[in-house]
Amino acid sequence: MTTPVPDRPQRAGHPPDTLADHVLDAVESLVTLWFGAAADAPPRPPTRQLLALQTVRRLPDLNLTALAEHLGIALPTASRLCGRLEAAGLLRRTVQPHSRREVQLVITSQGRRLLADVTEHRSLSLTGVFAVMTPGERASLQQGLHAFHRAHTLVRPQPPQLG
User: Fold this and answer.
1) Distance in angstroms (rounded) separating the CA atoms of residues 81 and 149
2) Could you tell me which residue, 85 or 162, shows the higher pLDDT?
3) Predicted confidence band at 163 (pLDDT cuts at 50, 70, 90)?
4) Sign of CA dihedral 44, 36, 80, 116
5) Counting beta carbons within 10 angstroms of the beta carbon of residue 67, is it exposed (0 to 12), middle (13 to 18) or buried (19 or more)?
6) Deepest of 5, 75, 81, 95, by most Cβ within 10 A of its Cβ?
7) From CA 41, how far away is CA 125, in angstroms rounded?
8) CA 78 to CA 73: how far, in whole Å?
9) What angle do CA 40, 71, 161 make, to 5 degrees?
10) What is the pLDDT of residues 84-140, one digit of tens each?
11) Which residues are within 8 A (CB) of 12 and not within 5 positions of it... i.e. 6 or more apart?
12) Per-residue confidence at 157, pLDDT binned at 50, 70, 90?
């Protein structure tokens, strides 16, 4: 049983201490851990740059326009963002051989190392939290996260794959 957070004002439309409140609390804790662990990985990239690198890693055929769309930013902003990543040696922009107007984004080995370091820091932070939980709590969390992911994909289908 968890206790309600006393500082949280009651939101209109539902009583306090609902499942949504518990999820909000957990997500806030996870976001704090997530970004805190990323900040511990040198060279401490800004969140948007890290998100851009992770997006390019996950979708390797991404071009600049698609990256801007995925991040929900304007194309000039995405271009400046990629310029900073390129200047830091984390990303390379190349011209597509079949379309000289299209810029393909490629993570450099230094960028891959940074993402691996961030992942390692996050994993260690999560492991520290999991160590405090009982085996039953960890199993319940795993089951609950799986159920949430499954339900979320039913409610909000995945966007179409590029390609």
Assistant:
1) 30
2) 85
3) very low
4) positive
5) buried
6) 81
7) 12
8) 7
9) 115
10) 999 999 999 988 777 777 788 999 999 999 999 999 999 999 999 999 999 999 999
11) none
12) low
Distance CA 73, CA 147 (A): 31
Does an H or E element contain 48, and which? Answer: helix 47-58
Q: What are phi and psi of 8, to 5 degrees?
A: -80, 125
User: What are the structure tokens assigned to 71, written together?
Assistant: 């991040």
In three-state secondary structure terms, 92 is strand
Q: Of 137, 126, 144, give the one whose Cα is nearest residue 19.
A: 144
Where residue 44 falls (left for φ over 0; alpha for ψ -120 to 50; beta otherwise) is left
* Helix spans in 59-108 (H): 64-71, 75-87
Contacts of 5 (CB under 8 A, 6+ apart): 21, 25
Across the range 60-70, mean pLDDT stands at 90
Per the structure block, which two tokens stand in for 33? 């851990």
pLDDT at residue 91 in the model: 95
Residue 131 corresponds to which tokens in the numbers above?
A: 């160590």
Q: What is the DSSP letter of 156?
A: S
Q: Is the pLDDT of residue 2 over 60?
A: no
Read off the tokens for 35: 């970004």
